[in-house]
């Protein structure tokens, strides 16, 4: 039993037929419920529900403040390497893209760590492309040992690991995992992941669960919005989060809502996701799962990010560079994608405070065993 | 009549404990403390950042307050014990609120692991205040383990739903010979007053104050409510009656012949 069995239940579900038959009274009934089920969640993702975004926003705001207070956790990504063996049609790290490749040495990692920690951030997310040759688990472990000196919380966004490998990085000091399924639709997944180990849909789909079994503390999942009809992807993301939350209640589950961004290389088969759609996804998720974390990255622009703060966001990145060595080095790589909100940590902090929220720099600490 | 609350050998003048999570800004905390007249402040050690003056919550807590660091983030007794020891090593004193939570959906405490952590830390000299699901037998075990007070929840953390566990808390107040501090769920000053009228020794409030429109005024309201509730308790509330005491009795005629 894994989330794949849950996915199969909906693989041939008639989403359009369900979504077309929703009325305004369905939406009101659901907004006024204390607890909503998965069909209610899907109902809130409907076209009809788009008319009631304000009502959903009021409730989402109330639930978020109740559960998390007026606080936003800040973190930043640290790119360790952009070497990648995959051919993913939507990603700048695609092995076929002629980009400047770079992997940080341990000295460079320390430089990056110093530069980031000088901004006051205590949570960091380390990223690599998928290359077990260039960035094996041992490299990640050694990097984490360096970063531990500078940060209270270290999360990873790397290629999917086996359960014992997750245990290994946790032992080194990793407490969080971010891993996006990219697209839950198995057929589209197969199409956009042209070649490379990432083609293995189920190995990636079950990665969050393997990390849960390995006793990871925080797990963030998500779909790359734009690769498929957003309603289906948002629905399956929510179901995946609920599955993990129900089965591994000691793990803090979060959802990220990344929209596809311009990058080196061209991917044209994009399903549009408007700002309104993004807001609707966030609100429906909050009403469905009041206790999950919600992350909005610097893929989104400054104005939108500021306006999303009261709607359910609990975590956001700041002072971001998607280039390897982007925080300290003069010789940077090419970036994975173009970021939109380029504000520094101080600017982001001020923006959060001006909205009446507290930016949180530290919300975890290493407990050595 | 002397009405004292003594925990860990310290006499507390205020029976309102305040939590520091969820505030829109740390800068509001000193005013909240002042307006509520609280003496005991709880904070999650996981958020304490000693390396940054501005981000360090301890900078916002007056030195004469008693720090009650909590073990938020602990999933079992072992982690709670480690966090408690770390708190002590960082200079947060020897009071500790044990929070062991392995349920991220409802944030309900694990009484079994809480008892284990309490036993270890009490032996090490900590003043241990365990947060728990209200259960008389578990509370008795906590007393045996060396707890300095017991902190049952009124409703799940952050819900502001009030004293949903009232009957169970009343049993604990009646049967446990330690201060019972109602923690979690208190949403309104009237909930706090109700807990105090029941005989609770104190209440701990966070969400209801931190997420109020005006946290400073709400803190004052809670301070007053706790005082009023305690005063009502020590004044001994009049008995509740099911039927009205009629000013014109219906059976008075039966006594008329005796006159």
Features:
heterodimer, A: 369 residues, alpha/beta, 8-stranded parallel beta barrel, two-stranded antiparallel ribbon, B: 259 residues, 5-stranded parallel beta sheet, 3-stranded parallel beta sheet, 15% strand
Terminal Cα separation of chain B, in Å? 44 Å
Regions with little confidence, pLDDT below 50 for 5+ residues of chain A: none
Radius of gyration of chain B: 21 Å
The oligomerization state is heterodimer
Pairing-aware structural class of the strands and helices of chain A? alpha/beta
Strand order of the largest sheet of chain B: 5-4-3-10-9
What is the arithmetic mean of pLDDT of chain A? Answer: 90
| Alpha-carbon Rg of chain A, integer | 20 Å
Quick check: average pLDDT of chain B?
91
Instruction: Estimate the global geometry of chain B from the Cα principal axes.
Output: globular
Q: How widely separated are the two ends of chain A?
A: 32 Å
- Report the helical percentage of chain B: 25-40%
């Amino acid at each position: 039993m894994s989330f794949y069995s849950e996915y199969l239940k909906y693989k041939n579900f008639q989403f359009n037929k369900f979504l077309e038959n929703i009325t305004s009274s369905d939406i009101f009934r659901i907004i006024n419920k204390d607890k909503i089920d998965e069909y209610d969640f899907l109902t809130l993702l409907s076209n009809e529900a788009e008319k009631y975004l304000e009502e959903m926003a009021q409730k989402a705001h109330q639930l978020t403040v109740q559960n998390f207070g007026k606080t936003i956790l800040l973190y930043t990504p640290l790119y360790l390497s952009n070497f990648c063996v995959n051919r993913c049609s939507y990603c700048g790290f695609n092995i076929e893209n002629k980009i400047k490749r770079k992997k940080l040495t341990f000295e460079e990692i320390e430089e990056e760590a110093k530069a980031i920690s000088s901004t006051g951030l205590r949570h960091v997310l380390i990223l690599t492309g998928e290359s077990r040759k260039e960035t094996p688990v041992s490299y990640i472990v050694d990097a984490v040992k360096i970063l531990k000196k500078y940060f209270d919380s270290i999360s990873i966004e790397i290629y999917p690991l086996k359960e014992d490998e997750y245990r290994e990085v946790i032992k080194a000091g990793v407490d969080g995992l971010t891993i996006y399924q990219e697209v839950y639709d198995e057929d589209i997944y197969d199409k956009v992941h042209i070649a490379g180990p990432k083609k293995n849909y189920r190995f990636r789909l079950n990665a969050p669960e393997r990390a849960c079994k390995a006793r990871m503390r925080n797990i963030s999942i998500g779909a790359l919005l734009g690769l498929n009809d957003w309603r289906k992807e948002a629905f399956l993301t929510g179901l995946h989060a609920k599955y993990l939350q129900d089965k591994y209640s000691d793990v803090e589950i979060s959802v990220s809502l990344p929209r596809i961004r311009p990058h080196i290389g061209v991917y044209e088969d994009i399903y549009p996701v408007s700002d309104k759609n993004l807001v609707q996804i966030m609100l429906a998720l909050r009403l469905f799962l009041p206790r999950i974390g919600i992350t909005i990255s610097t893929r989104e622009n400054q104005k939108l990010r500021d306006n999303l703060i009261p709607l359910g966001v609990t975590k956001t990145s700041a002072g971001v560079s998607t280039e390897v060595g982007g925080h300290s080095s003069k010789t940077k790589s090419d970036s994975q994608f173009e970021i939109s909100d380029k504000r520094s940590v101080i600017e982001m902090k001020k923006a959060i405070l001006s909205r009446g929220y507290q930016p949180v720099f530290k919300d975890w600490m290493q407990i050595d065993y | 009549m002397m009405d004292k609350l003594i925990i860990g050998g310290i006499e507390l003048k205020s029976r309102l404990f305040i939590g520091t999570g969820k505030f829109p800004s740390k800068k509001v905390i000193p005013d909240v403390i002042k307006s509520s007249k609280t003496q005991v402040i709880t904070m999650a050690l996981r958020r304490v950042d000693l390396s940054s003056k501005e981000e360090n919550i301890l900078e916002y807590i007056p030195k004469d307050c008693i720090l009650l660091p909590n073990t938020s983030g602990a999933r079992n007794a072992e982690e709670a014990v480690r966090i408690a020891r770390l708190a002590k090593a960082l200079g947060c004193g020897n009071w500790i609120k044990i929070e062991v939570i392995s349920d991220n959906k409802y944030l309900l405490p694990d009484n079994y692991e809480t008892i284990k952590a309490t036993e270890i830390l009490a032996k090490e000299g900590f003043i241990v205040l365990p947060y728990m699901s209200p259960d008389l037998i578990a509370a008795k075990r906590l007393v045996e383990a060396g707890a300095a007070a017991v902190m049952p929840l009124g409703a799940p953390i952050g819900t502001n739903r009030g004293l949903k566990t009232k009957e169970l808390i009343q049993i604990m107040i009646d049967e446990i010979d330690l201060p019972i501090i109602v923690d979690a769920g208190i949403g309104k000053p009237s909930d706090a007053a109700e807990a105090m009228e029941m005989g609770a020794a104190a209440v701990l409030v966070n969400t209801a104050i931190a997420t109020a429109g005006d946290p400073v005024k709400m803190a004052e309201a809670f301070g007053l409510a706790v005082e009023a509730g305690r005063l009502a308790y020590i004044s001994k509330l009049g008995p509740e009656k099911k039927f009205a005491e009629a000013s014109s009795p219906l059976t008075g005629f039966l006594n008329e012949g005796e006159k």
